[in-house]
Amino acid sequence: MPSTADEIAANLRTQIQRGELQPGDRLPGIETLAERYSVNRQTARQALNQLKAEGLAESPGGRAGTIVRQRPTTRLVRSRNIERDHLGYYSGPTVQHWRTIQGLGLAIDTRPVPADVAELLGITPGTLVLLRERANGDPEQPQYRQLAASWFHPDIVEDVPVLAGGTGLGGSYDRIEEWAQQPLQWEEEVTAATPNPAEAETLLLPPGVPMLRILRVASLGRGSKARVVEVQDIRMSGELFSVRYPLQRRGAARWPVQPSTGDYYSAGSQP
C-alpha cells in the first residue's frame, strides 16, 4: 500500500531527530521519495513541505534541493527581572547592551487595540490607543532581536501627554513614575504564538519557527486599587530564546513539610 505524505514525513523526521540525517544533509528528492514509497510526485512534495513548515528542513536554492535545517541547540535565557542603568529600565543583563535596530526605529501611532490587550487594559477592543512600537537587538548578533509594542491606557496619555512624543532618558516608565510619584509594578504572561508575515520578516524567523510572546502589564498601585497604565507586547524567536525562573515554595510546601505517609524511612523502608 502506498505511503501517505504524513508517513513519509514521519519517517524522515525520525531520522533527523535521531541524528541519522545531520544539519546540511540533503534529503531525498521528490523523484526518489516517489519511487521509494510508491507514491506520486505530489505526495512526495507534500511530505517535504511538511518538514519545511515544521522548521526541520529548508530549500536554500540552487541545486541544493531540500536539506536538513541547522537549528540552535541552546537558547539565550531571558531574565524577567527588572533592572536599571543610566538609560532606564531593562529586563535582565543579557539585553542591557541591546539597541534600536537601524531602519526599524521607534514608531508612534494611534491604532485600534487588539482584544487580548484591551482586556488587560480594561477597555473596549478596537478603541484607538497610543502605540509606541520598536525593534531592538544585539548589535553584534543580529539574529537576537525582539519586537516590543507598548499600548497605553487613554487615561494615562491624557495625564502624561509627553508619552505621545519624545520621552527622553528613562523613557515612558520614568515619565509615568515622575508624574505619579510612586513606582510601577509589573506582571507578565508568557505564551507561544504563530508570527504573521511582518513579524516573521522583522524577527528573521524561518518558516515553522514559533514566536515567544510576553504580555507585560504595568500598573500603579496594588490589589483592587491597581491602575493598569500600559501593556507591552514583546515578541521574539521561540527557537533562540527561553524564559527561566525559580519555583517558590509557598503555603504547605514550605520546608519543613509534613510527609503524607508519616516517617517513611524510620518505618524500615529503604531509599
TrEMBL record:
Is Transit peptide there in the keyword field? no
Instruction: Recite the UniProt keywords alphabetically.
Output: DNA-binding, Transcription, Transcription regulation
Task: Work out whether the entry's keyword set contains Transcription regulation.
Answer: yes
CDD domains tied to this protein? WHTH_GntR (cd07377)
Where does the HTH gntR-type domain start and stop, copy by copy? 2-71
> Which SMART domains does its entry note?
HTH_GNTR, UTRA
Entry's InterPro entries? Bact_HTH_transcr_reg, Chorismate_lyase_/UTRA_dom_sf, Tscrpt_reg_HTH_GntR, UTRA, WH-like_DNA-bd_sf, WH_DNA-bd_sf
What PROSITE patterns does UniProt report for this protein, alphabetically? Answer: HTH_GNTR
The protein's matches in Pfam families, at most eight in alphabetical order, are given as: GntR (PF00392), UTRA (PF07702)
Name of the protein described by the UniProt record: GntR family transcriptional regulator
State the organism named in the record: Prauserella salsuginis
